[in-house]
Design the sequence.
C-alpha cells in the first residue's frame, strides 16, 4: 500500500466512524483566533438592567420597613403573597442580614440555592426623587440626568479600553437616551433573531478562511495597508487606531461563537422555565376566585367589586382557569439578553451594557394563553363579550392590572430574574482577573424609571415619580446594605416608598446622585456638578455613603 | 494720546499671548465623516453598480453607526409597494430618520468600512477594471480624490502605484479605499 492509498483509507475510515469532524477541529484549533480580551486593569464592567415600564417592586427590592423602628402602614396591593381566598394580599417580612426584607428573599430557586444568596452582594438605594412625570421623562432622568452630558453608559464607554463600545439592548426611551461623546454605541433591537450575530456580524470576513490561519497572508496585507495609513495620519490618529482595533476583532467564522451563545441561551431559558411556575410562597392555593361569566361581569356595578380581576384595559380574569392561562408564559426577551451579556463580559468584548425592554411596553410575562380566560367589558355599549384576540403579555406599566394578576405576574418575573442573576454571578465569578474575579469587577444596576401608587379599587397602579429604587449587585459589595429615606404615608395611601427628606444631603436624593455614585465606583470623573456619590470604595469593598435609612413623616402622594 | 495707544497695543499683545498659551495657537478641527449616502454613492461610482450589494450589506444598512438619516418625506413609491429609490426608505420605521447626520468616528464604523473595502478589493470582480487601468495611479487618485488632497498618500504608495503587479495594486487600492481623506467633509 502506498502513501496515497493509506491516506484515502484513513479518510474513509474517519468518515465511517464519525471521527472526521473531531480530526478537522483538531487541525483547526491551532489556527482559530481566541477572541478573548482581558478587562483593562483600569476598567470596570457596568451592566444596567433597566425595567422600563415601572414595575412594582414592593415585594422585591423596594424595601419598605428594613429596620424594626421604621414605621410602616400597610395598604392595598402592596404585598408579596395572597392572604385569603378573595385575593387580598399581605407583605410578610423576614429578617435577613440584619434587615427586614420581603419573604420572597427566603424562598429557594429550583437549584436549591436561596434567593437570599443574592443579598450578600447587594446594595439598595431607595427613596430617590425622579421629580418628572411620565415614563420617557422618568427614564431619561435615570439614564441621562443631564441632557448636555453623556448617559452613564456612554460615559463609561468613552473612558473604557474594551474592544467594543456600549451595547444597548432594546428599543424604548431608555435606550434612546443613550449618548456617548467619543465612542458611539451599538443599539440592538430585541426583535433581531440572534442578538450576538448582530453584534459580531461587522467583524466577520466571510469565506476568508486563511485570514487568521497559519498562512496569514491577508492579515499581513491589512497590516501593511494600515501601516501606510499610520504613516499618512500619524500614530495618534483616532480613525487609524480604530482600524487597528477592528483588525483585532475580525474573525474568520462566526459559527462557533453563535453555537456557544445558543448553548448559553438554552441554559437561561431552562433556568427561567423551571423557576417561574414554582408558586411556592405566593399563596395561590388560598385563592378561590369568583368565576366571572358574562352575566356576572355585567351585573357588577363598580370597579371596586371587580377591579382586582382586571388584567388589562377592559379585560378581566375569568377566575376559574389561571393555570391554563399561565401554562406557556415566559419572560420574553430576558434570557437572550442575559446570554449575550454573559458572552460579552466573559470574552471582554464590552464593559458597558444595558438590558432593557423591546418597546415602550415592558412586560412581566409574555405568551399568556387567553383563548378562554378573559372577558371584555365594552363600556360604551354596556355589553360583555369574550376576548377573541390573543392577549400575550402582562404589562409592567400596570395601570389596568388588578391585584391578582399583578401579584402573580410580578412574582413570576422576579422568580425568573433571580436565577438569571445568580447564574451570571456564578459565571463571572469563574473568571479570574488578577487576584480577583470578574464578578468583583462588575457592577450590575437594577432600575426602572419609578415606582407605583396603588389604586383604591385595586384595578391597577399609577406612576409614583417621586419614588425610584436602584439596586446594585457586585462581587465587591461584600455585605447587604440598604440606604435612603422614604415617607411613612398616611392611612389613605400607606407606605409605598415615596422619597423622604435626607438630612445628610439637605434635600431628597436625586437621580444625579445615582449617576455620580456609579461614576465613583467605575472610577470615571462624573461631568455632572452638584451631585453626591451615595456609594464609595472602602479598600476593595463598595459601601454606601448614605448613612440614613429612615421612614420619615409625610404623605406618600 | 500716543502713550495711551502704545499702552493699549502692548496690553492687547500681552493678552493675546496669554490666550495663545492657554488655547494653543493652532486651530484644530475634528474630522467630520460623511454620511452613508455619500460613501455609498462614491464607492458605487468607483467600483460599479454591481458593488451596491456588498456596500449595502456591509455599510449602508448600519445607518446608526455610519450616519445618514433617511428622509421620511422623500419616499416615493411606484407600483404601490416599490420604492423609486430604496436607499431613501426608512428601514425599521421612524428611528432611521433620527440617525446622526455626521457619524462620530468609532470602532464599529471603522469595522464596517474595513469589511466593505476589503470585500470590494479582494472578493468578486468589482476591482478588476481598476486594477487593469494603464494609468492606475491617475485613475485611483481621480476616483477617490477628484479635487486633490492625496499628494502625501501618493508619495507613500509610490512603489505600489507604479507597479504592474496585481497584488501590489490591490494593496494600493485598499489603502485608498480606507484612507480617511475622501470620507471626510
Sequence:
Amino acid at each position: 500500500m502506498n502513501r496515497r492509498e493509506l491516506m484515502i483509507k484513513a479518510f474513509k475510515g474517519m468518515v465511517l466512524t464519525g471521527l472526521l469532524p473531531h480530526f478537522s477541529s483538531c487541525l483547526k484549533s491551532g489556527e482559530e483566533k481566541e477572541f478573548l480580551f482581558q478587562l483593562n486593569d483600569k476598567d470596570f464592567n457596568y451592566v444596567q438592567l433597566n425595567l422600563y415600564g415601572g414595575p412594582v417592586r414592593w415585594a422585591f427590592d423596594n424595601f419598605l420597613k428594613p429596620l424594626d423602628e421604621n414605621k410602616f402602614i400597610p395598604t392595598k396591593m402592596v404585598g408579596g403573597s395572597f392572604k385569603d381566598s378573595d385575593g387580598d394580599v399581605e407583605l410578610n417580612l423576614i429578617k435577613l442580614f440584619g434587615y427586614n426584607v420581603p419573604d420572597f428573599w427566603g424562598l429557594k430557586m429550583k437549584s436549591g440555592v436561596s434567593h437570599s444568596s443574592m443579598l450578600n452582594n447587594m446594595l439598595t438605594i431607595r427613596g430617590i426623587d425622579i421629580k418628572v412625570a411620565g415614563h420617557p421623562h422618568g427614564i431619561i432622568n435615570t439614564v441621562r440626568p443631564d441632557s448636555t452630558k453623556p448617559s452613564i453608559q456612554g460615559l463609561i464607554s468613552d473612558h473604557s479600553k474594551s474592544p467594543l463600545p456600549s451595547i444597548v439592548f432594546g428599543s424604548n426611551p431608555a435606550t434612546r437616551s443613550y449618548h456617548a461623546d467619543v465612542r458611539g454605541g451599538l443599539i440592538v433591537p430585541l426583535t433581531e433573531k440572534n442578538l450576538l450575530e448582530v453584534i459580531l456580524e461587522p467583524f466577520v470576513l466571510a469565506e476568508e478562511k486563511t485570514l487568521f490561519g497559519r498562512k496569514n497572508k491577508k492579515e499581513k496585507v491589512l497590516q501593511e495597508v494600515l501601516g501606510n495609513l499610520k504613516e499618512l495620519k500619524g500614530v495618534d490618529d483616532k480613525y487609524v487606531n480604530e482600524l487597528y482595533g477592528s483588525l483585532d476583532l475580525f474573525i474568520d467564522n462566526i459559527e462557533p461563537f453563535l453555537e456557544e451563545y445558543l448553548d448559553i441561551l438554552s441554559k437561561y431559558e431552562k433556568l427561567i422555565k423551571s423557576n417561574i411556575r414554582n408558586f411556592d410562597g405566593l399563596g395561590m392555593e388560598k385563592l378561590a376566585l369568583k368565576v366571572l361569566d358574562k352575566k356576572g361581569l355585567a351585573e357588577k356595578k363598580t370597579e371596586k367589586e371587580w377591579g382586582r380581576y382586571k388584567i388589562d384595559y377592559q379585560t378581566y380574569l375569568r377566575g376559574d382557569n389561571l393555570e391554563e392561562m399561565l401554562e406557556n408564559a415566559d419572560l420574553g426577551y430576558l434570557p437572550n439578553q442575559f446570554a449575550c451579556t454573559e458572552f460579552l463580559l466573559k470574552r471582554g468584548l464590552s464593559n458597558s451594557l444595558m438590558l432593557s425592554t423591546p418597546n415602550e411596553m415592558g412586560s412581566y410575562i409574555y405568551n399568556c394563553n387567553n383563548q378562554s380566560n378573559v372577558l371584555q367589558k365594552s363600556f360604551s355599549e354596556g355589553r360583555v363579550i369574550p376576548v377573541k384576540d390573543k392577549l400575550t403579555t402582562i404589562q409592567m406599566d400596570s395601570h389596568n392590572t388588578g391585584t391578582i394578576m399583578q401579584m402573580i405576574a410580578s412574582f413570576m418575573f422576579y422568580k425568573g430574574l433571580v436565577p438569571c442573576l445568580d447564574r451570571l454571578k456564578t459565571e463571572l465569578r469563574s473568571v479570574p482577573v488578577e487576584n480577583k474575579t470578574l464578578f468583583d469587577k462588575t457592577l450590575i444596576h437594577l432600575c426602572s424609571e419609578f415606582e407605583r401608587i396603588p389604586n383604591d379599587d385595586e384595578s391597577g397602579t399609577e406612576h409614583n415619580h417621586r419614588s425610584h429604587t436602584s439596586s446594585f449587585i457586585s462581587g465587591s459589595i461584600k455585605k447587604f446594605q440598604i440606604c435612603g429615606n422614604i415617607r411613612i404615608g398616611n392611612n389613605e395611601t400607606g407606605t409605598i416608598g415615596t422619597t423622604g427628606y435626607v438630612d445628610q444631603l439637605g434635600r431628597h436624593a436625586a437621580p444625579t446622585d445615582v449617576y455620580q455614585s456609579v461614576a465613583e465606583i467605575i472610577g470615571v470623573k462624573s461631568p455632572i456638578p452638584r451631585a453626591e456619590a451615595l456609594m464609595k470604595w472602602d479598600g476593595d469593598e463598595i459601601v454606601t455613603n448614605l448613612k440614613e435609612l429612615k421612614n420619615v413623616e409625610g404623605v406618600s402622594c | 494720546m500716543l502713550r495711551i495707544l502704545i499702552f493699549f497695543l502692548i496690553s492687547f499683545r500681552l493678552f493675546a499671548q496669554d490666550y495663545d498659551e492657554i488655547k494653543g495657537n493652532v486651530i484644530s478641527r475634528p474630522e467630520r465623516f460623511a454620511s452613508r449616502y455619500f460613501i455609498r454613492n462614491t464607492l458605487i461610482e468607483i467600483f460599479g453598480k454591481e458593488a451596491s450589494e456588498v456596500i449595502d450589506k456591509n455599510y449602508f444598512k448600519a445607518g446608526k453607526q455610519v450616519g445618514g438619516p433617511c428622509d421620511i418625506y422623500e419616499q416615493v413609491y411606484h407600483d404601490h409597494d416599490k420604492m423609486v429609490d430604496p436607499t431613501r426608505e426608512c428601514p425599521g420605521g421612524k428611528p432611521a430618520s433620527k440617525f446622526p447626520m455626521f457619524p462620530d468616528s468609532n470602532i464599529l464604523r471603522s469595522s464596517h468600512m474595513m469589511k466593505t473595502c476589503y470585500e470590494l478589493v479582494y472578493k468578486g470582480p468589482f476591482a478588476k477594471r481598476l486594477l487593469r487601468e494603464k494609468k492606475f495611479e491617475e485613475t485611483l487618485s481621480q476616483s477617490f480624490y477628484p479635487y486633490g488632497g492625496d499628494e502625501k498618500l501618493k508619495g507613500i504608495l509610490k512603489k505600489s502605484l507604479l507597479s504592474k503587479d496585481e497584488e501590489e495594486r490591490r494593496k494600493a487600492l485598499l489603502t485608498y479605499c480606507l484612507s480617511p481623506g475622501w470620507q471626510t467633509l
Remarks:
- The two ends of chain B are 49 Å apart (CA to CA).
- Chain B has ten helices and two strands.
- Strands of chain B lie at 77-78, 82-83.
